[in-house]
Amino acid sequence: MTATTAEKMTETPSNRLGDRIFSGLALAAGLSILVALTGVFAFLLIRGWQGLSQDASFYDAPRANDFLHYVWPLVFGTVYAAVIALVIAVPLSIGIALVISHYAPRRLATPIAYVIDLLAAVPSVVFGLWGILVFAPAMVPTYGWLDDHLGFIPLFAGNEGGGVNPVGRTILTAGIVLAIMVLPIITSITREIFAQTPRLHQEAALALGATRWEMIRYAVFPYARSGMVSAVMLGLGRALGETMAVAMVLSAGKSLVTFNLLGNESSTTIAANIASNYKEGTPGKVAVLIATGLVLFVLTFVVNFLARLIVARAERNTTR
Amino acid sequence: MSTLQSPRTSGLVSDLTAGKLPRFAPALAAVIALGIGALAALLIGGGLLATVLFAAVAFLVVLPAWYAVVEGRRAAVDRLVTCLVWSALAVALVPLVSLLWTVVHHGARQLDATFLGQDAFITALHQPTGILHAIVGTLLITLTAAVMSVPLGIFAAIYLIEYGAGSKLAAAIRFLVDVMTGIPSIVAGLFAFALFTLLFGPAYRSGLAGAAALSLLMVPIVVRSTEEMLRLVPNELREAAYALGTPKWRTIVKVVLPTALGGIVTGVTLATARVVGETAPLLLTAAITTKVNLNVFDGFMTTLPVMVYSSQAKGHPEDFDVAWGAALVLVLIVLVLNIVARIVGKIFAPKTGH
C-alpha cells in the first residue's frame, strides 16, 4: 500500500520534470568542461594559425626567420628552466615528505605539513618580487665563487672574459625560484603516497632487523614509485607553465639556446616571453605569441596527461 | 663464567647498549662540527652564513663517520639519511622565512590610510598614491570568477557522482578535469584574450575577460574538491531519502548537498585563494589602469598581482615600495582566505563514528 503511494508521488509530473531539469543541468555542466577544454585549443588554433607563417619581421628577424626557429629556443629555455627546478626540488621534496610521513613525531608532522602548504599559497608574483629584489642580489657572491672555482665546467662558465651576471638575474636564479614553487606540489603528493604504504610491509621490514632507512628503501619506495613519478611529472607541468616569477627574474632574457647558468645572456621561457612582449601588441606579433602559447599548451597537456595516466594505472593496480 | 660477567662488573656499559653510541653523540658531533665550521670560515673567509654552511657539511661527515666506526656501515647510512632528510626541511624553510620576512618588513611601512584608500590617478604633482583601485579590481574580478565557476563546478561534480557515476563519459570528464588543473595560467589568459577580442574587437579589455580566464583555472579545483566531498556522503542517507519517496533531485538538494556543505565551502574558498594571486591572465585580459573601475563589463581593471608586477617593472625604488605594499595586502588576503577555509572545514567537519 505504502509502496504504491510512494510510486504515485514520484510519478507526479512536477517531480519528473524537476528531475529531468536537474540531471540536464548537471550533464550540461559536465559537458561544458569538455567544451571549455576543446575551446581553449580551438581558439588558440584560430588566433594563432596565422602566427605560424608570418613575415620574417614578426619574428626575431636577424636571429629567426620563421616560426620554428623562433619557438625552438623558447621551448629549450622552458624545458631547461623546468629541469633545473626539478633537479633541485625533487630530492628536497622527497626528503620533506619523508620527514612528514616517517621521521617527525605526529605532533610536529601536522604543523610542518601546514607550513609547506603555506608555501604553495604564496602567489607567484610575490615569489617573483622576492626573487628579483632579494634572492637574485643575494646569490651574486655565490655565483661569483662558482664561476671562479668551477668555471672550467661549461655550465658555470659565466660571461666571456670572466665574471657573472652582476645582478644575479640568471636562469639558475629563475630555476631555483621555480624549484621553491613546485616543491610544495611534489611534497604534498609524495607524502600522501608514503603515508599509504601498508603498515604490515613496514613492520615486517623492521622486524627483520632493517634500519629505518632500509625499511623506507625496501618497503616504502617500491610501493610509492609510480606515485613519485607522477608527482614529479605534475611538478614538471607546473614548472613549464609558470609565468610571472620567470618573467620578472629573466626580464632581460633573450631567446637563445645556451646551457650557461650564470651568464648575462640567458634563455627565456615561452610563458615569460609572452608576458613581457604582449604589450608590443601589433596583431601580427600577438598572433605569433598566441601560437607559442599553443605550443606551451600542447607541451603541458602531454606532460599532465602522462602523469595522470600513470596515477590512474597505479590506482588500478593497488585496488586490485 | 667470568667472560660472561665481565661487562656487568665493569659497570660502565650495560649489555643492551654495548657497541652503541651514547645518546648525547649527535649533540657532541654538532658542537665539534660547529667548531670545524668556524675554523673553516676563519681560514677560507666568509661570514656567519658560511660558518653555518661549513658546520652543516662537517656535521653530515662527522656523525655518520663516528657511527660507521662504532656501530657499522648500516647504522651510519641510516644516520646519514636522517640528517639529510631533516636538512632538506631546513633548506626549504629558509626561502619561506626570508620571503615572509621581507614582504612584512617592506610592506608594513606602506600600509596607511592613503595607501589603502586612494587610487593611483594623479591630478597634481607629488600627490600621494594608493592601491585602492587594485584592491577593488581584485575583489570584483575574483568575485565574478567565483560566480561563474562555483555553480558550474558544483553541477559538474554532481554529474560525476550522482548522475554519471560509472559511465564512460563521467570517467572521461574526470580525467580531463585532472588534466585541466595543469593548464598554465598564461594559456588561460591567452584563451580569454583570443575569445573576447574575437567577439568584441581587438581593443577589448575588461574585468569580465579576466574573470573568464580565472574561472578556467578555478573550475577544475572546485570540481575536484566538491567531488571528493560528495563521495564522502554515506549512501545510506541517499537510500533513506529514496525509500521515503523523495525524487533524486530533491534528495541531492535537501540531503546530499547540505551534508557536504562544509567541505564544499572549504574547497571553494581554497580555489578562490588560489586564483586571487594570478597575474599573467589578467595582464593580458584586464590590462592596467590607475583609476577605480567598478564596471566589470567594460574598461581596464587592475588587480593587486598586476599592480605588484607593473610597479616592480617601473624600476624605481619608490615603485618597489608600492610593489611590496601591494604584495603584503595580497598575501594577507590569501592568508585570510586560507584561515577561513580551515575554520569552515573545522565547523562543518562531518561527524564521524557511529
UniProtKB/TrEMBL annotation, chain B:
What Pfam families is this protein classified in? BPD_transp_1
InterPro entries (UniProt xref): MetI-like (IPR000515), MetI-like_sf (IPR035906), Phosphate_PstA (IPR005672), Phosphate_transprt_permease (IPR051408)
Keyword Transmembrane helix on this protein?
A: yes
UniProt subcellular location: Cell membrane
Q: Keywords on this record?
A: Cell membrane, Membrane, Phosphate transport, Transmembrane, Transmembrane helix, Transport
Q: Which residues form the ABC transmembrane type-1 domain?
A: 135-341
Q: Does the keyword Transmembrane helix apply?
A: yes
Q: What does this protein do?
A: Part of the binding-protein-dependent transport system for phosphate; probably responsible for the translocation of the substrate across the membrane.
Q: What is this protein called?
A: Phosphate transport system permease protein PstA
Query: What organism is this sequence from?
Result: Nocardioides phosphati
